[in-house]
C-alpha cells in the first residue's frame, strides 16, 4: 500500500460516472488500504476512488476529526461500495465544504440534511441506512464523486465564473499543497 496522487480539478476521470464493482475486483484490499493512507496523508475526512484515478463506485470516510463537534462522528469510519442514494429529505442548507481535488478552495454548498443509502461494505455485506447531519453531508459529497459531480457543479453559474481563474490555477498546479497530486494542465 502507498500514498497515491490525488487528481486535481480538470481531470476528465473526475467527471465520469463510476462503475459498480464485484467482489473479485483485482487488488481491492490493497486499493482500499492505499486510499486510507492517501486520505490521512492529505488530512481529509473522505476520499472517492475517482479522485485517485479509478472510476469505480468506492469511497471511504473517517469523520473522527469532527468528533469534538458531533460526538457520534468520533468513530464514524466506513467504506462504501456500490452505494446508491435511495432518498434524500429535509430542507436543504448551506455548509462550507472543501475537497482534496480543489486545494485552497472552500465553498458553501447546498444539500439536504438527511439521506437513505444502500451500499456494500468491504466484505460486500449489504446495508441500507439513514444518515443525517454531518455524516449525511460528508457521504453526499463523496457520493457525488462516484457520479462524476464536483463541488463546483453545485454552485451558481455566476460564482463559478468568478472562480474561473482560481480553478484554472488548480488544474495547472499553481497551488500550494502538501500532499501528492496530479494536475491535468501541468506542463511536464
Ligand atoms: Zn471531494
Sum up the structure in keywords.
binds zinc ion, 4 helices, alpha+beta, 27% strand, 188 residues, two-stranded parallel ribbon
How is the secondary structure organized here?
Elements: E1 6-7, H1 28-41, E2 46-48, E3 58-62, E4 77-89, E5 93-98, E6 106-111, E7 114-120, E8 126-132, H2 133-146, H3 157-162, H4 164-172, E9 181-182
Parallel strand pairs: 1-9
Antiparallel strand pairs: 2-3, 3-4, 4-7, 5-6, 7-8
This protein binds zinc ion.
Residues 99-101, 141, 145 line the site of zinc ion.
Tell me the fraction of residues in β-strands, as a range: 25-35%
The largest sheet, given as strand count, sense and whether it forms a barrel, is: 5 strands, antiparallel
| Annotation field: number of helices | 4
Mean model confidence by pLDDT:
96
Q: Tell me the overall shape.
A: globular
Structural class by sheet pairing and helices:
alpha+beta
Describe the structure concisely.
With 188 residues, the protein is an alpha+beta fold. Helix content is 23%, strand content 27%.
Amino acid at each position: 500500500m502507498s500514498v497515491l496522487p490525488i487528481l486535481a480539478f480538470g481531470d476528465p476521470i473526475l467527471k465520469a460516472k463510476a462503475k459498480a464493482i464485484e467482489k473479485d475486483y483485482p487488488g481491492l484490499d490493497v486499493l482500499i488500504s492505499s486510499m486510507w493512507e492517501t486520505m490521512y496523508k492529505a488530512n481529509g475526512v473522505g476520499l472517492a476512488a475517482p479522485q485517485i484515478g479509478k472510476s469505480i463506485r468506492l469511497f471511504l470516510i473517517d469523520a473522527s476529526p469532527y468528533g469534538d463537534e458531533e460526538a457520534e462522528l468520533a468513530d464514524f469510519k466506513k467504506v462504501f461500495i456500490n452505494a446508491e442514494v435511495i432518498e434524500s429529505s429535509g430542507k436543504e442548507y448551506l455548509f462550507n465544504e472543501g475537497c482534496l481535488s480543489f486545494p485552497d478552495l472552500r465553498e458553501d454548498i447546498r444539500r439536504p440534511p438527511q439521506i437513505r443509502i444502500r451500499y456494500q461494505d468491504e466484505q460486500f455485506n449489504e446495508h441500507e441506512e439513514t444518515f443525517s447531519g454531518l455524516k449525511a453531508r460528508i457521504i453526499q459529497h463523496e457520493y457525488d464523486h462516484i457520479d462524476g459531480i464536483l463541488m463546483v457543479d453545485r454552485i451558481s453559474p455566476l460564482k463559478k465564473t468568478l472562480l474561473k481563474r482560481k480553478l484554472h490555477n488548480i488544474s495547472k498546479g499553481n497551488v500550494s499543497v502538501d500532499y501528492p497530486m496530479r494536475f491535468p494542465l501541468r506542463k511536464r
